[in-house]
């Protein structure tokens, strides 16, 4: 098969709200993830990758465009947005390199047709006019109109047992539908497939026949105290919408985390099934496989469960694993990387020139090991960036700075991450750290100026663009 294909297949596994530490390969002693661990052991496991947003849609659009939020324009979760003007990975591969393009699972990134997907089976995140295929599946099997969202148990963020058995769960459905696509794909053309699991995002419900149960008593909660809750609301936005141990109690929080781990193991089980299908088809050695998540979860940190719009590492630190049998290195990379870097890395691994619209930095030489010399990494980043409306953040290996400006509200947060991993001691405007604050402010300003993409009217085609700059109408 491979000699007939000019390009390799691409398979991206994505989970939703998946904390970096919630994998066996990342040191978690409770949750079992043998299939993802196998990808990490046989590939390159990036240890310090950060999502550009702690919200689903902005992060997912970043994955598929290689652009920062203020460039692609999607800052919040929306029911439907126009993404037809964006240069997306599936559209680029379909239109320029003869790829089949498909997505299965939670999309939440704009209309599938606009994003460039020829084939789609959606379980969540659909847009106006798009059918939720999983809900139709549940109705067909007698489980009601809205799946687990219509379970008459408790709130969405509660932990409970669903009346939907494992074989009909959204995890099993996503695995089944991914395998169905692989079975019917044209073997003479390469495919780009985004297999995107809706959970462990809440609802944190498990099936009655849960094949991967975890004992809540085995869950060790991270230390927590009231100090985090003493921060002004604007510095931890949305936190009152999530669980916290002071309201639910430790027993309930442990149960939520135990269910969360069960969902992770169910996803891992389905990834194992999909990998076996690739091997059965003889396509495994010709498929670049990426495992990642759109953002993280508190998962007990600060006594919290869920997410919010804050800038804490636990919500932005995500897993990122590249596996290409026989072609990737086998190591852990501890340099800083970002979600924007995934698209250019995939394209370079495929031998495809990256479009000018992409703002990320390719990781391909780190993935193949060709950029490693004498134990030193490729030209790694010194800082990563993430953002929400009116808030911009820069993070180095040792420090983090966040700046907010909205109407008459402004604030800054500066943390020494070596001394204060939980980001509780704000050093902003502390004279001892003035030189660090200034350095990070310059980095943040430089990043924003370099990645600004104005709708050029006056300069137009007469503007001379540096290599990192593009503008609407240039391509």
* Major sheet details: 8 strands, mixed
- The tally of structural domains comes to 2
For the residues shown, what is the average pLDDT? Answer: 88
CATH superfamily placement of the largest domain: Alkaline Phosphatase, subunit A
Strand order of the largest sheet: 4-3-6-1-9-11-2-12
The number of helical segments is 13
Helix-residue proportion: 25-40%
Give the CA-CA distance, first to last residue: 35 Å
H/E element sequence: EHEHHHEHEHEHEEEHHEEHEEHHEEEEH
- The best one-word shape is globular
Derived from helix and strand composition plus strand pairing, the structural class reads alpha/beta
CATH top level of the largest domain is Alpha Beta
The fraction of residues assigned to DSSP E strands is: 15-25%
The Rg value, from CA coordinates, equals 22 Å
Q: What is the level-2 CATH architecture name of the largest domain?
A: 3-Layer(aba) Sandwich
CATH topology of the largest domain: Alkaline Phosphatase, subunit A
How many β-strand runs?
16
Low-confidence regions: 149-154, 455-460, 468-475
């Amino acid at each position: 098969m491979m000699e007939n294909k000019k390009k390799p297949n691409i398979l991206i596994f994505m989970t939703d709200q998946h904390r970096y530490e919630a994998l066996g390969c990342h040191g978690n002693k409770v949750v079992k993830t043998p299939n993802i661990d196998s990808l990490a052991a046989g590939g390159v496991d990036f240890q310090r990758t950060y999502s550009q947003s702690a919200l689903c849609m902005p992060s997912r659009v970043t994955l598929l465009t290689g652009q920062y939020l203020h460039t692609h324009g999607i800052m919040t979760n929306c029911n439907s947005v126009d993404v037809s003007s964006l240069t997306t990975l599936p559209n680029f591969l379909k239109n320029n390199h003869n790829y089949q393009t498909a997505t299965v699972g939670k999309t939440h990134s704009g209309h599938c047709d606009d994003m460039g997907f020829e084939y789609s089976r959606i379980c969540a995140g659909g847009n106006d006019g798009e059918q939720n295929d999983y809900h139709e599946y549940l109705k067909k099997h007698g489980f009601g109109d809205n799946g687990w969202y219509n379970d008459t148990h408790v709130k969405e963020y509660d932990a409970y047992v669903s009346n939907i058995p494992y074989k009909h769960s959204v995890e099993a459905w996503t695995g089944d539908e991914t395998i169905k696509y692989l079975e019917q794909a044209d073997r003479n053309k390469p495919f780009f497939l985004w297999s995107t699991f809706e959970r462990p995002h809440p609802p944190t419900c498990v099936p009655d026949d849960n094949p991967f149960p975890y004992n809540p008593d085995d869950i060790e909660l991270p230390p927590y105290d009231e100090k985090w809750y003493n921060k002004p609301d604007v510095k931890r936005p949305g936190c009152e919408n999530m669980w916290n141990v002071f309201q639910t109690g430790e027993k309930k929080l442990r149960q939520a985390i135990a269910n969360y781990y069960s969902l992770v193991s169910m996803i891992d089980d389905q990834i194992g099934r999909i990998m076996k299908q690739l091997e059965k088809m003889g396509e495994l050695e010709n498929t670049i496989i990426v495992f990642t998540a759109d953002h993280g979860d508190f998962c007990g940190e600060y006594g919290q469960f869920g997410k919010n719009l804050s800038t804490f590492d636990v919500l932005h630190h995500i897993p990122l694993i590249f596996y290409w049998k026989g072609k990737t290195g086998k190591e852990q990379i501890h340099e800083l990387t970002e979600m924007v870097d995934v698209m250019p890395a995939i394209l370079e691994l495929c031998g495809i020139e990256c479009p000018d619209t992409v703002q990320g930095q390719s990781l391909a030489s780190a993935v193949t090991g060709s950029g490693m010399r004498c134990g030193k990494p490729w030209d790694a980043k010194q800082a990563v960036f993430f953002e929400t409306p009116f808030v911009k953040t820069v993070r180095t290996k040792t420090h983090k700075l966040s700046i907010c400006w909205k109407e008459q509200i402004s604030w800054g947060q500066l943390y020494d991450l070596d001394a204060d991993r939980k980001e509780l001691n704000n050093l902003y405007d502390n004279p001892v750290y003035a030189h660090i604050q200034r350095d990070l402010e310059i980095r943040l300003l430089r990043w924003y100026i370099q990645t600004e993409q104005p709708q050029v009217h006056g300069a137009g085609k007469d503007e001379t663009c540096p290599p990192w700059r593009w503008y609407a109408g240039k391509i």
